[in-house]
Write the structure tokens for this entry.
Amino acid sequence: MWSSSFASSFIVTSISASSDVIPRAIKRLFHQASIGDQSYRFMFKRGPADEAVAIDCETTGLSVRADDIITIAAIKIRGNRILTSERFEAAVRPDAGMQAEAIKVHRLRQIDVAQGPLIWKALPSFLHFVGGRPLVGYYVDFDIAMLDKYILPYIGIELPNPRIEVSKLYYERKYGDAPPNTEIDLSFAAILRDLNIPLLAQHDAFNDALMTAMMYLALRDMKERGVRIPRLRTHTVFNPTGA
């Protein structure tokens, strides 16, 4: 996860409205009817009602078209528990070269993943792990778009799983009732700080997925209890001179 640098360049447009709900639903029906590998039809069956999976991918860069995944992590959430013992982790060998900026972010060099399997080898285990459960993430659309780049040619469908965006949940709890022109900070660091979640070593796929899972449970609980995250009050001083 590219955290704040990613958030500034890949803002999810569904923060205030899910404009792509209908196209995604239609695409799901199309893929369900045209799935190439019938053994993966289980992906369209919703998992246990109280389960979700937090996911995170580290990549060689921020371009879905040009960059590749290098690590994937997924952790199951059951009820109010994060099941760190039920997790999926894989480091894979990318086709794209490592960009210097990416190496600075996740501290993985080309040589560090050169012996890993190609992502095609990791996909079956990942897909069986997540099943049809909702996928929880921080700017999860990017992670899913990166995964779909490989999954679509592999089994003929994109991930049909429901998506839960933690930055959207955070926005609702903190800024849903904010007046116009309120300064909005949806960075990973801001969410951790407001929810009193400990900062683990970032840009490690497992740690980022774990922190995301903690965010999700905290924000879900706040929503169920009708609790909002307080904002700092800003005072506007009226100056008749306009200065």
About this structure: DSSP finds nine helices and five strands in the chain. The longest helix spans residues 205-225. The CA atoms of residues 56 and 199 lie 16 Å apart.
